[in-house]
Amino acid sequence: MGKFDQRAEEFGMLVGAHESARRVEDLPLDWVMPDPGNPRTHFDEVELAELAASIEVRGVLQPIIVRPRNADGKHVIRMGERRYRASLAAGKTTIPAIVSEAGEGGDVLADQIVENDQRASLSSRELALGVERMLAQGKTQAEIAKALGRSKQFVSLYAAYGEMEPYLREAIDKAPIRVLYDLHRAARKHPVEVRGFVAGLGERGVTLAEGSRFIASLKGAVDAGSAPAPTAPAAVPAAPSPAKPTGRAGHARPIVAPSPVKVMVGARSARLILPERVRVVFDDGDEGEVASRDLSFE
């Protein structure tokens, strides 16, 4: 189980244990309002329609959590805006809710990020804006990583969003955060090339592999201009020296990637050989160790 999944599970157990002792009330929906600071800003219409259809038949099975009534007489939602929106769509007039004063500031925001992403993954933009707000509240990247149950590298990728040029910030829905981070760094030396690359993304966007190849081409262009001899492409790992097959007990053999993956090392062709477990960085910036047999190659 990853750190985020563990954090989400602990969070769910904590909320369940802490809130179960509180009284569930049927609040009029016009007494309830969304939190303007909710990290989720996009709600999928198809998913909401499906949830509304379920609520119309079975009702809201899990109460939302709201704050006490404010000066305007409204209960601001802490958790459960999707259920609130779906209840409105289903024509309900009330919603089961638990009124809770628990949590303030950055702790509430961290809980909302975890709760939202656990139910339906937040977009890269929503995660980036959430991390940006937590930084603005004075939290360090290490504190944010701990609060979200994510790696420090994951947080550092999203933390860089606030430092990016506007054209890169606008491209966050078209590129994995890892690619956007690398483009942000590459733009310091290659601003014209990076801006041109981003301008040509189109609606389809770019994959992690495509972005990595572009970054590698920029590095290769620098190397070609400064080095007298050709060098290996930056994005292609050098293959280790071929292992000597012995077949004897006690001598582990390396794993050859399925559907032999051909790589180039300088001018020489080779096969990519992997150990039994490898470390990977996902498109969303998270990282972890996986078995080589679970990999597939484009």
From TrEMBL:
SUPFAM superfamilies attached to this UniProt entry: KorB DNA-binding domain-like, ParB/Sulfiredoxin
Organism: Sphingomonas zeae
Residue span of region Disordered: 226-254
Biased composition, class Low complexity, residue ranges: 226-238
Alphabetized InterPro entries for the sequence: Chromosome_partition/occlusion, KorB_DNA-db, KorB_domain, ParB/RepB/Spo0J, ParB/Sulfiredoxin_sf, ParB_N
Biological processes annotated in GO: chromosome segregation
Domain ParB-like N-terminal, first and last residues per copy: 25-117
Protein name (Swiss-Prot/TrEMBL): ParB/RepB/Spo0J family partition protein
Keyword DNA-binding: yes
